[in-house]
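@channel anyone free to eyeball this complex?
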Amino acid sequence: MTADPRVADPRAAGPRAAGPRAAVPLDPSLAPPGTRAFRDAGGIPADQWHADQNGETLVPTHCCFCGVQCGMYLRVDRAGKVFGVEPRNHDINRMRLCPKGINAYQQVNHPDRLTAPLMRRSREEDFREVSWDEALDFTVAEIKRIQQTYGNDAFGLLGGASLFSEKTYLVGKFARVALKSRHVDYNGRLCMVSAAGANKLAFGIDRAGNPFSDILLTDCLLIAGSNVGECFPVMTQYVWGARDRGASLIVIDPRETAIARTADIHVALKPGTDSAFFNAVLNVVIEEGLTDETYLAAHATGWEEVKAKAAEYPPSRSAEICGVPAEQIVQVARTFARAPKAMAWHARGIEHHSQGVENCLAVINLCAATGHIGKPGAGYGTITGQGNGQGGREHGQKSDLLPGGRSIANEEHRRQICEIWGIEESELPPAGTSMMEMVWQMRRREIRGLIGICNNPFVSLPNYKVVKEGYDTTEFHAQFDFFLSETAANAHVVFPVTTWAEDEGVMANAEARVVKHNKAQDPPPGVRTDTWVMCELARRLGAGDKFAFAGSREVFDELRIASAGTVNDYYGITYERLEETGGIAWPCPSIDHPGTPRLFEDGRTYHPDGKIHMQVVDWHPPMDPYDDEHPMSLTTGRTVAHFLSGNQTRRLGALVEQTPRPWAEIHPSHGFRNGEPVRVVTRRGSEVFPALVTEAIRPDTVFIPYHWPVPTSANALTIDALDPRSKIPEYKVCACRIEHAEKIDEVPAPPAAPGHVAYPETQVSRTDPLPPTAPQGRGTSERS
Amino acid sequence: MMGRTIFIDPGRCIGCQACVSACRECDSHRGKSMIHLDYTDEGRSVASLPTVCMHCEDPVAPCAEVCPADAILVTADGVVQQADTTRCIGCANCVNACPFGVPKIDLQAKLQMKCNLCYDRTAYGLAPMCATVCPTGALFYGTVEELQAERPGVQVADTFVFGESEVRTGVAMVVPADKVQWPVPGGLPVVEVNGKDVRR
Ligand code: SF4
Ligand code: SF4
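replying in thread with the prediction:
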């Protein structure tokens, strides 16, 4: 722990003391009066404004957003309210933060916070604020009515991967034990399940193989389908660190992103062709004798079949499919395979596809064939989009998994969990369906009631029309949230719950490093923790004895026991150890176990035979075919200022100012001028966006960031085709065309919070560097 | 060049504006950012670079030199402070004098505001907010030796030429190792634009 006296000891019980602080060993005479450092140093400014009156505490915690999980301090004032952020020197981020992390604290006391349950008996009525009892009673009555009429499986639960692991554990348990329904899934289904599926198939373990710090040791870094600079900005420090040491950088992306801009090789392939590309790279590796046959013979199965399949993908064939020069494929193969140590990291760009699992397997095949596995600086990883995308599925929130990553279809696993939960095995429902499939079932009236926790499918699921119909068809819908999201606005009941700063719990970042978030302030009056709401609903449903948890710590202790002995072993991880160490990577089977930052160091995987099970991958075209009317590819993604469905970041002034609206990024060859309205048409519909004209995108591709609701929603246009194994939607490619349009349908401005949106007028000493319609961060062009 | 200072490395900038957000959080001008981001080759590339106050030294910073109210103080360690609120008359002379386009005027308050190298932090050995959070190290705070230890072979420039005049700055720019020339063209360390050599 740090010795900084402003840092609160998170282990101290009870509400945080707001008393005078211990002396700070700084000389006040060195600090300019009126500054914070002066106050911190105990100095008394000339106006006698005493430092104690302005005392603040720093609470160590982590960012609530992406899978990097940067360490930060929340600044808490004497009244116990979060009012700012201070960088924290944690191993993961070493003080660095991205704009989302810096502004995250502003949502804690944001004027839009929901502070009383909202309720209405039908969607025609307006919401009214009600007591907790009324909202809970109505919800329980509706659950009972629906389940008694249509069966237990007619009520579903959708969780979220921004929840602490304790809460995701509770979501899984609540669905199966309190609701007794098979239908539970989570929005991590939209995140890294393709990578998870591939890792499980190949290695028998579902996580990245190496810690971020290994990137600094590699000689060749391959980044596939990841806009690291915007989606995981703080991870860039590792990429640049590797570059400083002379590592070569290969980036596979249809856009020239900030990372791609400086790559040694940027392969701007056509969306949806990744496995054809990786098969061809493997083909060259084999042809040029660059495989590591000793490694393969000792550690892999399936190599002969994979090799035979790769033979069908000579660079000339894949070059045609991918729309890139064949020489680039050869160059990538040589650079990656000849490097003494090479690593591959990927993200949604290759995972959000109807063959997302295969794309990830193709990358794994390449790593295995070249022996770049399980060594410092050599291995693979997937970068998690959501803070707890990794931890969110480890303990039973996903439809087919039980705690500890156990399979719900496995007799032995079911028996183990039923014993811990104290229920009969016959009471434990079988696997349910995935998030998008549940929406289809809602539309078909197979699921009649739904509780959503910490998710916003109205913005984040593909094919908005279908999603809206699905939700509108439900007879009862309750949503947990701290802001009224687009999805919550459709509900019958909205439960106002805590932000990450008002509760404690753990998250697992993209390295599978479990980190502890600490409570920085008490929730506003009227707001309860998600844990409390779930336990209270369970009690009213008659399962109170199975949900007698006072808070996160008790849930975590049950989770540890429930994971003991599995691959996802958390048993040795305790809150105290997390605070001492700054994070522990699982598996961690015992209290004295240091955790497992790097996998397979002994050459063994988590399959019983200890080998990598290489899988044959064949390319097939995307699900939405191109034709004369839809000749281009639409691809979607994020922008640095916003997070997922934007429910949180679209309310924070600095972030809204940075990127106020979405855009359609297109190549100058289409004849549009920058800022001109462009209509993007797919088989699902059409929407109008300002054009962002740039050479940094393929001429046959359009990019739209997806954080906004209709009428400028990328996901009103995307296709709800799913990967058959991971059931992840194909967000990253669908057929489209672009047309000139009259005007842009503006997204209604987010509710502006004073002090959060508008800053006093300041005359900037130069012209604004951005054209008025251009979103920041992407180069723009006036040339037509 | 000062001992510890900011080094700007445009090659690493990802345009994320964490620096802009962080600057807004600084206690001495909370809610306003004193940094802006430039896009150097719009429409062709996503390249970007941040502009912070360069803390000029030649012989005294141009903004301080032209200030009729003597409101801009330069400290002994070379930090050009933001205007003293008790003296500043909001005339904007500094805005016009600054070759890097840094100072801003708050029209309502009739006050100048600019980056003061987070003096309240640096006085205690903390890095300025922008360089602390910058996810990529495009803004680095430390000595040139510390920078070079982290990034072997890195070359920096702290003298810029604007037409006839040369300005030496307290903040330095990383320039491509094979393109170092002294002084570098003013404002931005640009040596080529659209493939054309713009050095004269
Ligand atoms: S990189 Fe991710 S974890 Fe770090 S500050 Fe940004 S959003 Fe938060
Ligand atoms: S924080 Fe760093 S990388 Fe981001 S825009 Fe500023 S200088 Fe560039």
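from a first look: The two ends of chain B are 25 Å apart (CA to CA).
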